[in-house]
Amino acid sequence: MKRNVLFSLIAVLMVLSMLLSACGGGAATQAPAETEAPPAETEAPQAVDKVRVGAMYPLTGDLAKLGEENKNGLQLAIDEINAAGGIKALGGA
Questions:
Q1: Judging by beta carbons within 10 Å of its beta carbon (0-12, 13-18, 19+), is residue 74 exposed, middle or buried?
Q2: What is the SS3 assignment for 5?
Q3: CA–CA dist 66, 42 (Å, integer)
Q4: Backbone φ/ψ region at 47: left (φ over 0), alpha (ψ -120 to 50), beta
Q5: pTM for this predicted structure
Q6: Do residues 74 and 55 touch, judged by C-beta distance below 8 A?
Q7: What is the pLDDT of residue 4?
Q8: Which residues touch 92 (CB under 8 Å, ≥6 apart)?
Q9: Fewer beta carbons below 10 Å: N end or C end of the chain?
Q10: Whole-angstrom Cα Rg for the chain
Q11: Of 19, 4, 21, which Cα lies nearest the Cα of 62?
Q12: CA end-to-end span of the chain, whole Å?
């Protein structure tokens, strides 16, 4: 019983930490100063060859099967995007 409670607590903490990191921490974000010039619209976006995708899944322990399934699902999505010509907004990267 204690083990299930511990795993539930760890899972909740992991989800909360991922949500907080995805939100971006608004305090560190600052509005641009009025003296800064806006970026020029004529600048071309940088060319990208590869897009790195990161994920954090449990690959050992009691939740290893779930982590393996998630990892396989991510790889399937990556393969489908690559087969369709990549990400159009990034020039097919």
A1: middle
A2: helix
A3: 46
A4: beta
A5: 0.48
A6: yes
A7: 76
A8: 85, 86
A9: N
A10: 20
A11: 4
A12: 48
pLDDT attached to residue 24: 58
56 secondary structure, DSSP code: -
- Please give the pLDDT value at position 28: 52
pLDDT above 70 for 62: yes
Quick one: tokens of 46? 């940088």
With a cut of 90, say whether residue 60 has pLDDT above it. yes
- Write out the two tokens for 71: 């990892």
* Residues ≥6 apart with Cβ < 8 Å to 57: 66, 67, 68, 70, 71
Q: Is the pLDDT of residue 74 over 80?
A: yes
Tokens of 24: 């971006």
Q: Looking at residue 88, what DSSP letter applies?
A: G
At 8-56, the pLDDT tens digits run 878 877 887 777 776 655 555 555 556 666 666 666 667 788 888 889 9
Cβ atoms of 71 and 53 within 8 Å: the answer is no
